[in-house]
Each structure stands twice: as C-alpha cells, then as structure tokens.
Design a protein that fits this description.
Shape: flat
Strand order of the largest sheet: 1-2
Helix content: over 70%
CATH topology of the largest domain: MetI-like fold
Strand content: under 5%
CATH class of the largest domain: Mainly Alpha
Number of domains: 2
Order of helices and strands: HEEHHHHHHHHHHHHH
Radius of gyration: 29 Å
CATH architecture of the largest domain: Orthogonal Bundle
Number of helices: 14
Distance between the termini: 77 Å
Length: 325
C-alpha cells in the first residue's frame, strides 16, 4: 500500500524551494547592478593597460608589428635623453612640491584667521584652479615674450639681468655642477616650476585650510599658556595634527607633477633644447612626435611603476602614522 506525504509537508517543501530560488536571485542582484560600471572600467582602464604591455614588446616595421622582447626598454635605459629627462623631472618635482606645500601652508595659516574678507580671498584663490593647464601655460608664456610680454621690460634690463637681459624661453641652461645631472636648472625650468606652483596652489591651500580648521583652539591656547611661541606651536602642535592631510597633499602633488604634460606643452614645449623635457613630455614626444609607440609604451610602463611605488610609499607612511596615533 502506497504511503502518501501529507499535504502540509508538500506545501512546506515547495515553499522552501521558492525561498531558495528567490534568495539566489537576490544574491545576483548586486552583481547586475555594478556590471555596467565594471564594463566601463574594463574598457577605459584595464584594456589600455594590457594593450600598453603588448605594445611595449613590439616595434613598428614597414611590414607591420614585430615582436622585439625587451629591446624597447634597453633603448630607453641607454638613451641620454631619458637620463636627462629623469634629472629634469627630479628638479621639477622637488621645486614644485616644496614651494607649493610651503606657500600653501603659509596662506592657509593666514586664511585660518577669521576675517570679514576670508570668503572673498578664498574665492579669488580658486581662480587658477579652474583654468586648464594649457590655458595657464599659454598665459604664462605670453607674460615673458621678449617683444610684448608683461615682464619683458624687466627681464630685458641689462642692469638687472646683464649683460643683455634675460630671455626666459630661449636662455640656455648653465653648465652642470655635478657631472651630467642638469643642475642648476635653466631659467625656463625655473619658470615652469613657478607657473606650476601658481596652478596647483589653490587646491593645496584649501586642503590644508580645511585641516587647520579641525585643530582645536583649546590646544593652541594651552600651548601658548605653557610658554610656546608661534613657531613652536606650529612646529610641535599644528603640523603633527594636520600631518595626514599634508601627506595626502604631498602624494597628490607628486603624482600630478610626475604625470602632467599640459603645462610643459603650452609653456616651453620641452625647450630651449631639451632643458624642460620632463618624463611626461618625453613620453608625448616619443609617442606622438616620433610615432615610436613601442618605445613610448615601454616608457609609460616605467612611469607607471614609479607611480605605483609612490602610492605604496604614501600608503605605508599613512599606516605608520595611524599606528603611532
């Protein structure tokens, strides 16, 4: 005689099956929601990386692309232009980062003092930040043109920049002091640093100002009661409290200076000669002027490795600060 399952048990079994199917559909829901974003990231970030890897081991011949292995990297390491560009990049980064951080911190300290015109000052300060690098570079180039530049009257004074005045965009670099390392820099590289500082100063100032406004006034007043002067308060109280923000600013400036090409392109175009040819502009020159995409891809990978090292170093410093706190 057959045994039949009671109706309530069958209903419970079918209900459990429907619940499991519903849960599986719900578990897949987050994936379908982020799938468009993942596809966009694959198209604009992951695919170019792999394509750059492929190009870096190939060379364009009349017959087509030819696999050359690590030859493009060897050509870069043996090229004097690359070594000079590394020197120019180091000088540019040191001057650019140090000046921007220092001036940004000083201006942020001044703006942190409550004033009726603080809002107006901050608004005016943001004007350079809203300009594109190309526009800022073109404006700074117009300022020093020998014929009608705003600063040409001062720069052409033999008594100040003797004996024949100074042409910033064409003056050759001085003789290097340390072998082949390009120091002291050319006037054009110094001017490029100043223009880049002017362009990046608003962002760093606002970032540091926001950090300063989180510092408690009670802590500052306590240090002054204990006998600390203004410089001691800044050194031992203010800077340690806003140090994580300063690390973020340092990281942002270093990466921006390492990879930016717009200012160099519009202001000096790597000249005079190659005295302002930093690595980012050399990458542009190799890729789009010489149309040597294989060597340009190899240089892009080398710059990417440097960027990754900078990111890793910054993250390590940040973690050490968090542990110490």
């Amino acid at each position: 005689m057959e045994q039949t399952v009671p109706a309530p048990l069958r209903d419970d079994s079918s209900a459990s099956t429907r619940t499991k199917r519903k849960r599986r559909r719900i578990d897949w829901l987050p994936f379908w929601l982020i799938l468009p974003t993942v596809l966009v990231l694959l198209a604009i970030q992951v695919y170019p990386v792999f394509y750059t890897l492929v190009l870096s081991v190939q060379e364009r011949k009349p017959s087509g692309w030819v696999y050359v292995g690590l030859r493009n990297f060897e050509r870069l390491f043996n090229a004097s232009a690359v070594r000079e560009s590394v020197g120019h990049t180091l000088i540019f980064l040191v001057g650019y980062v140090v000046l921007t951080l220092t001036l940004g911190f000083i201006i942020a300290l001044l703006l942190n003092r409550k004033s009726r015109l603080s809002g107006a000052y901050i608004t005016l300060l943001f004007i350079p930040w809203i300009l594109a690098d190309i526009i800022a570079g073109a404006v700074f180039r117009l300022l020093v043109l020998p014929d009608y530049g705003l600063f040409s009257g001062i720069l052409q004074q033999p008594g100040i920049f003797g004996p024949n005045g100074l042409s910033v965009l064409t003056a050759p670099a001085p003789k290097p002091w340390f072998g082949e390392f390009p120091f002291p820099p050319s006037p054009a590289l110094i001017y490029l640093i100043l223009a880049s500082v002017w362009r990046a100063l608003p962002f760093v100032t606002i970032l540091l100002l926001a950090a300063l406004q989180t510092v408690s006034n009670e802590v500052i007043e306590s240090s002054r009661i204990d006998g600390a002067n203004a410089l001691q308060t800044i050194r031992h109280i203010t800077i340690p409290l806003i140090l994580p923000t300063m690390v973020v600013a340092l990281f942002s400036l270093t990466l921006g200076g390492m990879n930016g090409v717009g200012m160099v392109f519009a202001l000096t175009a790597g000249g005079p000669g190659n005295s302002t040819e930093v690595l980012s502009y050399l990458l542009y020159s190799i890729g789009w002027s010489a149309l040597d995409f294989g060597r340009a891809a190899a240089l892009a990978l080398m710059i990417a490795v440097v960027n990754l090292l900078l990111i890793a170093g910054t993250m390590r410093v940040t973690r050490l600060q968090q542990r110490s706190e």
